[in-house]
Hints:
Largest sheet of chain A: none
CATH topology of the largest domain in chain A: A middle domain of Talin 1
CATH class of the domain at 218-233 and 254-355 in chain B: Mainly Beta
Protein name (chain B): Twin-arginine translocation pathway signal
Pfam family, one (chain B): DUF1513
Number of strands of chain A: 0
Keywords (chain A): Signal
Number of domains of chain A: 2
Oligomer: heterodimer
Strand content of chain B: over 45%
Number of strands of chain B: 28
Organism (chain B): Gemmobacter aquatilis
Keywords (chain B): Signal
Amino acid sequence: MLLRLALATCLFALPARADVAEAVSDHILPGLAHFRDTTATLAASDSCDPAVLRPLYHQAFDAWIAVAHLRLGPVEEEGRALAIAFWPDPKGLGAKAQAALLKAADPAILAPDHFAEQSVAARGLFGLERLLYADPAPSGDYACALTQATADDLAGMAESVAQGWQDDFAATLTQPGPGNRYLTETEARQALLTALITGLEFNADQRLGRPLGTFDRPRPERAEARASGRSLRDVQLSLLALRQFALKLVPEAPQTQAAFDRALSQADALQDPVFAGVSDPQARLKLEILAQDIRAIRDAALAELAPALGAGIGFNAADGD
Amino acid sequence: MQRRSFLASLLAASTLPRLGWADAGSPAFLAAAKDATGAFVLHGLSAQGETVFALPLPARGHAATAHPTRPEAVAFARRPGTYALVIDCARGTQVARLTPPAGRQFNGHGTFSADGATLYTSEVEAEGSAGRIGLWDATANYARIGEWASGGIGPHDLKRLPLSDDLIIANGGIQTDPTDRRKLNIATMRPNLARLSPGGEILSQAELPPDLAQNSIRHLALLPDGRVAFAMQWEGDPADPVPLLGLWDNGALTLCPPPETEAYVMQGYAGSIAHSPTLDALAITSPKGGAVQVFATDGRFVATHRRPDACGVAAGPGGFIVTDGNGAISTLDAAGLLPRRSTALSWDNHLVALAI
């Protein structure tokens, strides 16, 4: 009886295979720690001078892109993923919400607890982008205080996410079993594979797809982080992060890695930081090819990684009914 | 003697009295699935989510409906559907197969009249997707006995309103290609909830406000007070969050938006809906968002629960039972959502409670 009990405990406590554990220890936790550190550095600056803050903002944004595909766990709570990066925003909700804050100029809402309750559209990296890259730049003490409150709030969310993984969610993912959010190792692998695939689709369908619009109606104004000139950079950094993530999940996946390399070299060859070329037939073609290259990574990953992980995804999600 | 073998010997007896649901004992739920070999199956599940019987399906399944008195259910093909199977739930066997008439396609759902004499099926004209309600005589081997207009394009779920023989029909509004499910009229779609009399007369049609015309009304859950909760699928810009749950109260529609932080979770898609009498709450599922959202029956948002590819949901002992495409069967109660059983199946869109 004792032996059986011990055996059962042992089975349930067994960590997931190295794939999940390595992705957590080598990709997720370091990425989240870097996001926490860069946002803390940004928040620690006393300056309101855009020239001082912009490089710190870019470091924080770079760090976010490296973990933005990890849409599971603490980042899902309290709308954090939305508040960190409220994009796409086709109706301009962020600009409206921030304009309302600036107009009201109420110092009370800048207190951390209060600010965390403001609209997710007004907060985070895109809230900062509007403050740091507006032309003309909003001036005055309140705009400065709002910039600092936005940076503090961002750093607080990054801290909560990193801490939540460290304290709890890393174990949730690596030690599946009864009573846990993930029942089996397969489910934990599925969760990470889903994050990878969804991350690839986000680059193709949103970061590229939104500005591409249709041939007859390209939408260059819809490019992500256009004001701060990061649209292409976000795709490049995201692909680099996703490539590392895929490698940690399944080290031997030559087709997937080759597909990443193709898309990255296509992206690196572009001289189009904010996808302005969507309106020009020749430049547009290169962006469409990049989107296709990214979809090819997704197809390769589904063909190669899903069987290696023993985890299919999206039986119902892909159905639609 | 164990109950099951007793039941089996009882069933073997030739002087068998007609069985009712109470005699069947189990199953508590029906769910379609894809198995590890890629074959499509229908499982009868106990209240604990254990498989009581499994039957092969000719093609991918969708939903099912239970006969009000006989331990019999009809399982429907995924649209555009070419079959519906009548299942003897006491024996776990198929007793009849329905085929839509020429030019008609099943749309995945059906319901019985209060006396169980008539089966109503959600159908479309293959060309143009005009909605039809097929009528089948459940007292005469499910002979086709007629059809009505559903009051809209692309009907999906339908239910019989409590304490009446009126039908409520979710006319999803989407015209689809009869062969490949391509959506053909997204720019001009106009879903509605239609109420039909027992004679097939359209008594009312409730439409969404014009800015939500691209919110396809697809699935229904009856509330004990006569209202109907409906779940929607947004065909507009997914970055534009819209309510996915609404309440129909005798033709008047109320929408139930979640708070801003929860408004993007479902990615504009609710795949199933159920009401739990135990919790007096509604659950809508989103496989695309990997989440289940719970609302009070007054429309107030209660909570978001995460579950990858979650889609099937039905009232269960402590609240809800949730099934997902990765094979798990989970409980959702006041304490939260917890996966309980893992299977090698991909559970399909719906989990159908058979409790009458």
